[in-house]
Amino acid sequence: MNTTIDSLTLDVPDVDAARSFYTQAFDLGDRLRFRTADAETSGFRGYTLSLVVSQPANVHALVDAAVTAGARVISPVSKSLWGVGGTIQAPDGAIWKVATSAKKDTAPPSRTIDEMILLLGAKDVVASKSFYADRGVAVAKSFGRSYVQFDTGASPIGLGLYRYASLAKDAGVPAAGSGSHRLTVHGTLGTAVDPDGFVWAPVTVTA
Predict the structure, then answer these.
(1) Matching CATH number, 5-201, of 3.10.180.10, 3.40.50.10810, 3.40.50.720, 3.40.50.2300
(2) Which of 2, 97, 162, 169 is 20 to 30 A distant from 44 in Cα terms?
(3) pTM of the model
(4) In this structure, are residues 198 and 192 in contact, taking their beta carbons and an 8 Å threshold?
(5) Residues 3-36 pLDDT 10s
């Protein structure tokens, strides 16, 4: 099946502050929800969120908006062999990567987002892949013990697995971390907890 992710709930210290930040930074609408929670957590939370855009100017526009709204820069926007990207940390602690495979701009800057992708850090990619496959989640691409991209169809949020240490390195943060992920994934998988402790819940209409 194509597993659809309807939305994500982030556990944050202040719901109003989080909603204000994300509206100013990315304006993701109903794809993000917030819940006040005091769960213990430290260091890397084991996941990253990526925003894929069409050109470098859009990367700059989104990263600049996030920083203006209060984000911390982890990796400044820069060019690489694969394209252009930058990484920031939101005030609530979530790590966001904004990137494009394009090397040149072809239109005026905008904050239009083409894709939003949740990457889960897996201690054992093969075991985590099996967990999802056993529940009918289709695999789009798989690279051994390193990376898996799932087929989420027309879902507003894509899903992938990345080796935990590699995901932390890609995010530009130390791999050490413990406690709550401070994340709930709402989708057609229903109620479940994967091998790395990521919590899934049914689609919710609660704001």
Answers:
(1) 3.10.180.10
(2) 2
(3) 0.93
(4) no
(5) 689 999 999 999 999 999 999 999 999 999 999 9
